[in-house]
Amino acid sequence: MQKKVANTLKKILLVFFLIIIYSYTLLITNLPDEVVVFEGEKISLKTLLGIDIKTKRENTIEALSNNNKALTNTAGKAKLEVSLFERFNLKNVKVDILPRTKVIPVGNIAGVKLYTNGVLVVGMSEIEGLDKKKYKPYANSGIKEGDTIVEVNEQQVTSTEALIETVNESHGKDLKIKYVHEEHTKECSIVPVKTKDRQYKLGLWVRDSAAGVGTVSFYEPSSKTFGALGHGITDIDTNELINIASGEFVTTRILSITKGQSGNPGKIQGTVENQSNIGKIFKNSKFGIYGKVDNLSSLKVDTSKEMEVALREEIKTGKATILCSLDNEKPQEYEIEIEKLYKENNYDNKSMQIKVTDQKLLEKTGGIIQGMSGSPIIQNGKFIGAITHVLVKDPTKGYAVFGDIMLKQSKEVN
Predict the structure, then answer these.
(1) CA distance 284 to 114
(2) pLDDT digits (tens, 9 = 90+) for 275-290
(3) Exactly one of 208, 235, 358, 404 is catalytic; which is it?
């Protein structure tokens, strides 16, 4: 009996020990390699017993405070040294401390045109050959929906038309294809099939561009950069973030507004045809789209409305306002309520839960609708973030991303 109890106890201790090892391994693995913060912003990292984090900068080392948050008061470079019991170095985290920056909240609706790096595979289908048999040329190639074809026979693919021309010029000979799958470049071979209309095909449906409308969040005068949408643009068929080669930002004319209802989000319908150029898009990320403004007059910003980007510690639950334009005129300010804050969230664009409380906006849109993504949020005279999502069941509510996340993204635009 005692032996059985002892064996059970050993098993429990072993499981407990393995859980501890797993917890420490998971924590260390999830620590970032690099952190970007602003002057005065706190670095917050989760730790466990025995794990120490020290800040090293200009040959000085200071331990983090008890809550593992370090103040970064001067712009420049720093390093966080993660160790076990201050003896065994586990990881070094690079810290890039950016100077505090002022932006101009915008709130105008604008048009977006994106061009992919290569062509995006959005679907696959069987092909009927000259012999009336069904073929799948792509079978066993490894190519999936959402992948991007970048080269055929060592020639760069720049458009859908270029791919079609290259495939037809093959006359059915084996094609060497280079494609990108989940950020990894791979290669395969596909033999095109000749169809009854004398065309050669791969059985792949592809796309090389996308267009839409959204709201400009801010303009940063010192770098002439802009941030918009607060979320990335994904392909409608694959739901994957579009890997862009270039993009255009243009003015848009609002055609109609569909009011949102429970279970049926509304939308802003606009046109990007025959509109003026605003600038170029260089980045499409899960936190928004970013680029350079070429024509400031077409963006129609009020340069006297410059304000600081709030640090997360400065943002509070309660009243705030958003800027958005719903009638092709100057953006208007509407009241909202910040219901929840997720200050340690750096992983997605749901940093805040918000609710529209302004009666005029509710009467016009029913709350948050498609096209309002990117609407800047202002609290206590500071830019604190931008709208990103609507809750389908309750269009008066949605999510927003922190302003510091968007500004850090824009700093990466060359």
Answers:
(1) 9
(2) 788 999 999 999 999 9
(3) 358
